[in-house]
Design a protein that fits this description.
The complex is a heterodimer of chains A (301) and B (148).
Chain A lengths: L10 H9 L3 H12 L3 H6 L7 E6 L6 H14 L4 E7 L8 E3 L6 H4 L5 E6 L11 H10 L4 E5 L16 E6 L14 H4 L2 E4 L7 H16 L5 E3 L8 H9 L8 H18 L2 H11 L5 H9 L5
Parallel strand pairs in A: 1-5, 1-6, 2-4, 2-5, 6-7, 7-8
Helix pairs in contact in A: 1-2, 2-6, 4-9
Chain B lengths: L4 E5 L8 H12 L3 E4 L6 H10 L4 E6 L4 H14 L6 E6 L6 H6 L4 E3 L5 H17 L15
Parallel strand pairs in B: 1-2, 1-3, 3-4, 4-5
The chains are: A alpha/beta (301), B alpha/beta (148).
Chain lengths: 301, 148
């Protein structure tokens, strides 16, 4: 940020410029939001209506290529598409290698689409803090379709459900542990399931395993689609399915639950006493219970 | 330490990105956020990526000999897009004879094969220092500073 004139850092004017179509101002606004600038976060409250879709799944399922094809297809249908691609930060160096663009050949070359790579930074799980506010900023800038691709997740990481309107779960055909589908987790929260790499053997079987896993759970009618993002088969059907999704009201309380938990975590991590208590815990000076009690007191007390 | 957002890009048609990946990794290990573009990006795409990603540094890698055309083109487009404060460095097989022209187009550092990654990190330290002092180092900021 050094070397940038002060007026460029003003969140309100950045937002106004982003609304007028300045990509650079939008980019700077997103940086401010992610770094926790409260003026920028406040500025993007009450965004205009947009549709957001979380794209999640295990590492190697093909999320990036699928996101790429989906972004292109939505853009071809006249949507103004923005993509947030999440990759983990190194817990050791704090740095991050954000490589999703390597696999985003179509949307990367398409200037209608805004793509932003986002590192998880100091978040504990697979989602960076303030991702919702970043999505809101994109909506303010006129994007009506917002795709958020998560880092590779396990079956219990549900965070994305609290951020986007709908969630698409991507699975691959070659996953030997697909029987895990019968366990509770992200599968139950997904609005659409895609078995990607449908050009490979085993895709039909995987889809059928997922179907029986889901039906066993709650008599679900969640669509399960076979797609080959690589060969671009099934993408049009996927877009149509996404466009026909209705708001998933049943999980709205679940969503608020997760949102509240996420905000609480953020609040705790930005509390001045947090790191100090971590140290005291490590030194055996306080118990976990004492630490929690202290954190729940107002900071000035 | 200042955490920088750095785009590491492969302009043009050459398909060799080992060097670019080694650099990207070293920068990540030094605590920076590195956006790697993948192969065969046009100068226009690279500039848009730098803009969308709010990157303050762009590293270009070329091993095909097309650097003499592609690197200055990226610099020119960055300036035209109002991104003259972005710092550009280059790497790959860049003959000495080609370097003065590249420096003239605004590139601030050129790192050939075998350069220890520490040297690139010290280049970035220098950039951060210069920015703090308000000394020119961006691609469109003029002056004759270059890493040596």
């Amino acid at each position: 940020m050094i070397g940038v004139t002060v007026d460029h850092l003003d969140a309100i004017s950045l937002l106004a410029e982003a609304k007028d179509g300045s990509r650079r101002s939008l980019a700077r606004l997103l940086s401010l939001i992610q770094s926790g600038d409260s003026l920028a976060i406040d500025a993007v409250q009450n965004p205009p209506t947009s549709r957001s879709l979380g794209i999640t799944g295990p590492p190697g399922a093909g999320k990036s290529v699928l996101t790429d094809r989906l972004a292109s297809a939505l853009s071809d249908r006249g949507c103004r598409v923005a993509v947030l691609c999440v990759d983990p930060s190194s817990p050791v160096s704090g740095g991050s290698l954000l490589g999703d663009r390597m696999r985003m050949e179509e949307s990367g070359a398409d200037e209608r689409i805004y793509v932003r790579s986002v590192a998880t930074r100091d978040a504990v799980g697979s989602l960076p803090f303030r991702l919702s506010a970043m999505a809101d900023a994109l909506a303010h800038a006129g994007h009506d379709s917002i795709l958020i691709e998560t880092a590779g997740v396990g079956q219990t990481e549900l965070g994305i459900v609290s951020i986007t309107d709908h969630v698409l779960l991507v699975e691959g055909p070659e996953r030997g542990d697909i029987i895990q589908a019968e366990k509770a987790g992200i599968l139950e929260m997904a609005d659409i399931v895609v078995v990607n790499k449908a050009d490979l053997p085993g895709a039909e079987q995987a889809a059928s395993d997922l179907r029986s896993g889901l039906e066993f759970g709650r008599g679900s009618t969640v669509p399960i689609l076979l797609v080959s993002a690589l060969n671009r088969t099934g993408v049009v059907e996927l877009v149509e399915t996404i466009e026909n999704l209705s708001p998933s009201l049943t999980i709205s309380s679940m969503r608020w639950r997760l949102r509240l938990l996420e905000s609480l975590q953020q609040t705790l991590l930005s509390d001045n006493r947090f790191e100090d208590l971590v140290r005291q815990l490590g030194d055996g000076e306080v118990s976990l219970e004492q630490a929690i009690n202290e954190l729940l007191q107002p900071e000035d007390a | 330490m200042t955490r920088l957002r750095i785009v590491v890009a492969k302009p043009g048609l050459d398909g060799h990105d080992r060097g670019a990946k080694v650099v990207a990794r070293a920068l990540r290990d030094a605590g920076h956020e590195v956006i790697y573009t993948g192969l065969r990006r046009t100068p226009e795409e690279i500039v848009r990526i730098a803009e969308d990603e709010d990157a303050s540094i762009v590293g270009l890698s070329s091993l095909s000999g097309a650097h003499a055309f592609l690197f200055p083109r990226v610099c020119k487009l960055l300036n035209e897009a109002g991104l003259g404060d972005v710092v550009v460095f280059g790497g790959g097989i860049i003959p000495q004879a080609d370097r003065p022209t590249l420096y003239e187009s605004g590139i601030r550092g050129i790192f050939g094969p075998g350069t220890p990654t520490e040297e690139i990190l010290s280049f970035l330290d220098e950039v951060v220092e210069r920015r703090a002092k308000g000394s020119p180092c961006g691609v469109g900021e003029g002056g004759d500073w270059r890493h040596s």
